[in-house]
Amino acid sequence: MKFEESIKQETFSSPQIKALLNMMYTANWFMGKQTELLKPYKLSPQQYNVLRILRGSHPNKLTVHSIKERMLYKTPNMTRLVDKLIAQELVIREGCIEDRRVVYVGISQNGLDLMSQLDETLSVFDTILQTWGEEEAELISEAMDRLRTQ
Amino acid sequence: MKFEESIKQETFSSPQIKALLNMMYTANWFMGKQTELLKPYKLSPQQYNVLRILRGSHPNKLTVHSIKERMLYKTPNMTRLVDKLIAQELVIREGCIEDRRVVYVGISQNGLDLMSQLDETLSVFDTILQTWGEEEAELISEAMDRLRTQ
DNA sequence: TGTAATTAATTTACATGTAAACTATATTTG
DNA sequence: CAAATATAGTTTACATGTAAATTAATTACA
C-alpha cells in the first residue's frame, strides 16, 4: 500500500515532508518485521543488534562502552540488555583486571550458533532489499547523511 | 558525521543493507530531535502526532479508531495517550449517542494555540529538509513505498 | 428472538526506552 | 600525595510501546 493510503492523508505540505514521514513510517514498518521474525527466538531487535556487533568482533570481547557506540539505536539500558542475553546464555561477561571499572562482553558458542540460524531466517530481508538498485541505495545513504549533517 | 563513522562500521555486505541501516539510524536520529524540541511542551512525538491529526480534522472530531489509523506509528495505548492530552487540556473527549461504544476526540482551543506555537518551534525541520531537492524527495518516497510493498 | 460474531474502546501486564542518580575506579592537577 | 575530576558501568525510576484480556455495545443470522 502506498504511504498516503496507509495514513489516510492525501496531501503533504511538500515532497520533502512526505518523504521524511514516509521514511519514518517505513523504518517503523521494518522494525515491526524484524521484531516479528525474531520473536520465536525470544530476541528483541536491540538484542539482535548487540549479538551482531559481538559476532563482528569475535573472538575479541568488547567493553560495554564500545558496544553502545556501535549500536544503531540510542543507548538503551545496556546492563539490563546484557543481563537478558546472559540469561539465555548467548553472551559472556567478564571483568577487566587492569582497569576494574571495565567489563568485557563476548558472544558465546550458543550465541554464534543462534546467529547462523538467524542468518537464514533474516535472509528474507536480502530479497526485499533487492527492490533497491545499488546506485539507488547509494543515493539513499547519501541523502540520509546529508539530512543529519546539514 | 557519516553513518559509517557513527556506528564505527566501515564495510557493509551491500549498498542496500547500508542504506537500510542508515535509514533506520536517521529515522531514530530525527525522532530524537523531535523529542528534544517537544520536551519543553511536555509532549511526546506520538502525542504531537495525535494533535496534528486532530487539528487536520478540526472542527470535526474523530473516533479513537480513526485516529489510530492515521497515526504514523504503530498503535500505542490510545486511551492512555488521550488521557494525558486531556490532563493537559489539549483535547476533548465525548461519547457518541448513536453508537455508545464509540468515543469522539477533538482538539481544544488550548490545543490549537499550542499547535501554532509548535509550528514555529518545529519550523527548523523545514530548513533541514531543504537539503533534499523536490525530485530527490519524490525518489525517496517512491523507494520507501517499493520496499514495503514489494 | 436470542445467540454468536464483530467492533470499539479500555484495562492490565509486562518489556523496553530513557534519563538521572549512584558506585567504584582511574586520572589529573594543585 | 590528596582532592578534584573524569570515566565505566550499574541501579533506579518512570514513560512509553505492545500485546492480550476484558467490557460493552452492535450487528448478523439460525
Automatic annotation (TrEMBL), chains A, B:
<feature type="domain" description="HTH marR-type">
    <location>
        <begin position="14"/>
        <end position="149"/>
    </location>
</feature>
<dbReference type="GO" id="GO:0003677">
    <property type="term" value="F:DNA binding"/>
</dbReference>
<dbReference type="InterPro" id="IPR036390">
    <property type="entry name" value="WH_DNA-bd_sf"/>
</dbReference>
<dbReference type="InterPro" id="IPR036388">
    <property type="entry name" value="WH-like_DNA-bd_sf"/>
</dbReference>
<keyword id="KW-0805">Transcription regulation</keyword>
<dbReference type="InterPro" id="IPR000835">
    <property type="entry name" value="HTH_MarR-typ"/>
</dbReference>
<dbReference type="Pfam" id="PF12802">
    <property type="entry name" value="MarR_2"/>
</dbReference>
<dbReference type="GO" id="GO:0006950">
    <property type="term" value="P:response to stress"/>
</dbReference>
<protein>
    <submittedName>
        <fullName>MarR family transcriptional regulator</fullName>
    </submittedName>
</protein>
<dbReference type="InterPro" id="IPR039422">
    <property type="entry name" value="MarR/SlyA-like"/>
</dbReference>
<dbReference type="InterPro" id="IPR023187">
    <property type="entry name" value="Tscrpt_reg_MarR-type_CS"/>
</dbReference>
<keyword id="KW-0238">DNA-binding</keyword>
<keyword id="KW-0804">Transcription</keyword>
<dbReference type="GO" id="GO:0003700">
    <property type="term" value="F:DNA-binding transcription factor activity"/>
</dbReference>
